[in-house]
Amino acid sequence: MADLSPPFKNHSSTTTITDLNEDSLAHCARYLSLQDVSNMATTCRSLKRIAYSDSIWQRFFRERWPRETLDGSFQTSGIREAYLARRTTLQQFKFSDPVVADFYTTNAKPIDHILLEKDETIFFSQGSLIRMVKIANLLSGSVSLVELNDHNARITCMRLFSLAETSLFRSESERKGNILVTSSSDHSIRLWWKGSCQRCLRGHNGAVSTLSDKLLGDDSGKILASGGEDGTIRLWSLSSSGKSRQHALKATFYGHEKPVNLMSVAGHRKSLLATISKDSKVRVWDTAASSSVRSSCCVGMTSVSGAPVNMKCHESLLYVASGTSVVAIDLRTMEKVIRAAICEPKLNAFDVLPSKSLVCTGGTGNRSFSSFFCLKP
């Protein structure tokens, strides 16, 4: 009987992806994600060579840093190596920021204070003038400055607080975003929202020198604290009902003999406010006291050596930088539990990450910058 089955065919000549020329493969790979290109490089030597080609990595470079130009260094090592080197630099906090957006103002006065509102707005002050610029506009090159010029003298402090923390507006839709609070040498405090002054608070008999870094009180009513050249601490209600200055000013604390330089709200009790005056005297106030004008609201006192530089509360500890050192004060006992970060001959700058037990200081002299790890008590 004759064999009617089809003859056997050799399929060994089937075309595979590696049979395509490298230019075609590189062109196709330009449409892949970074993860897919990395996976492609791990399959075989020929595909690895294609995955490392400059045409592919040039696209990744342009997408990541569209405003940057490739310098001549990539000609010896390749664009892939230039991409990875720049990415590594950024992740290691070497601050080789690939996006630089400069702009210049007509006001010749120096910038005294600057605040960042997440990734939306930059606020900065020059003398009595406050300016706003949208970050997106700044990066695109279309700089449009908004000026807030209601203050009549130099801005002394700027803070941003979430509107959700306050009861300034009754409508839920209006309580989104942040409110800018500024103090000035013109004796006033102003609250800004949507590019205009919503409220002006007056009561200090001199320049307002500082504002609390957090709002005091519970959810039923948030309080803003201010310190002034008159040596007083004043508490202001941030509620929709306190529109007149008599209703807004809730209390005045006396006790400091010199101008109040700095203040910070305690972490373990939101009613405790720590302040320091120009003579380096530290006082702790219980703002929950019912009396509107009383010096007995002071529940703790101590002093530090040297001119005050900065202060910050964390839980029950108050970190104070002054003179040449940083001390930590236990607000429950007013005992000095840590003294560290000696910076001769003068301490100029200070910040602390209490959760990491890290104190950073900057000063003058041979030891221009120092960082110290401090043990928690």
Q: What portion of residues belong to β-strands?
A: 35-45%
The CATH topology of the largest domain is given as Methylamine Dehydrogenase, Chain H
User: Can you identify the CATH class of the largest domain?
Assistant: Mainly Beta
Sheet having the most strands: 4 strands, antiparallel
Named at the architecture level, the CATH assignment of the largest domain is 7 Propeller
Counted beta strands: 23
Mean pLDDT: 81
Query: Largest sheet, order of strands side by side?
Result: 1-2-3-4
Low-confidence stretches: 366-377
Query: Helical region count?
Result: 8
The level of helicity is: 10-25%
Q: What distance separates the N and C termini?
A: 100 Å
Number of separate domains: 2
**Helix-strand makeup class:** alpha+beta
CATH superfamily of the largest domain: YVTN repeat-like/Quinoprotein amine dehydrogenase
Global morphology: elongated
Instruction: Please give the radius of gyration in angstroms.
Output: 30 Å
Structure notes:
The chain is an alpha+beta fold. It folds into 2 domains: 17-91, Monooxygenase (Up-down Bundle), CATH 1.20.1280; 113-303, YVTN repeat-like/Quinoprotein amine dehydrogenase (Methylamine Dehydrogenase, Chain H), CATH 2.130.10. The chain contains 8 helices and 23 strands. Strands 1-2-3-4 form a 4-stranded antiparallel sheet. It is elongated and about 95 Å long. Mean pLDDT is 81; it is low at 366-377.
